[in-house]
Amino acid sequence: MAEFILTAEGISKKYGAFSALSNVSLKLRSGELRAVIGPNGAGKSTLTNVLGGQILPTTGKVVLDGHTVTGMAPHRLAGMGIGRTFQINSTFRQMTVRENMLVACVAAAGAGYSLRRGKLRALDTRVFELLHEVGLSGISESIVEGISHGDRKRLELGMVLATAPRLLLLDEPTAGMGLSERQDLFRLIVDVVKRRGLTLMFVEHDIDIVFNLAERITVMARGSVLAEGSPDEISADPRVQEIYLGESVVAEGATC
Ligand code: ADP
Ligand code: MG
Q1: Mean of the pLDDT values across residues 244-252?
Q2: Which residue, 35, 125, 132, 141, shows the most beta carbons closer than 10 Å to its own?
């Protein structure tokens, strides 16, 4: 396995005169859990979208497994192992949990897939394995519209796993969830990532989750990488405390 599954070099993204990203470089080691944090507007989503192929960078290069993939379409990147979750409307709300997973498995099998009886049976097995993996086998016949927000996120994760990704890019997967639901979902994500030997890059606002789970943290501010390091290095970095965590944290530290 290559040391780095993905490298991004000198990525910039301009919207007119405004730079959403300026000269961002990043290396993801195969199998690592990487968090990307930073204040609103720092460029976290833009970077995730550049890596997932949703946004074409103005300058810079993205390399996946030694292949330059800059500007490649998301479905081609998915075919090369990049899984991107939690986009709006990624589930069909009027269909059951099982039917959603079936659609994802058929799509993952490719356009030329022939639905002969033997293959359908294999597909059913696959659907139930994936539902089991994300903890949804008990509600497989429920209509998606009626299931909880957390279960919908589990389903979205399972649907991405149907594409057999090696790198997962998750942009605020727990947005809009309560604390215990957030922790449950992240526990599942980490379990899946570790069991399958995947690489994970996630954007997350909940700082407790970030510092508990991430092996390395990239801190972004105003379109640039401000710092990168282990959770200990990042929490000890005064620039991070000042720019990311805000004055209150620095002030609290000063009074101790
Ligand atoms: P984050 O995810 O860290 O909150 P984003 O990557 O969404 O930040 O946005 C970075 C900056 O780029 C923000 O100032 C945002 O307003 C700007 N931006 C994002 N998308 C566009 C766009 N399509 N056109 C103009 N500006 C954009
Ligand atoms: Mg964002």
Answers
A1: 47
A2: 35
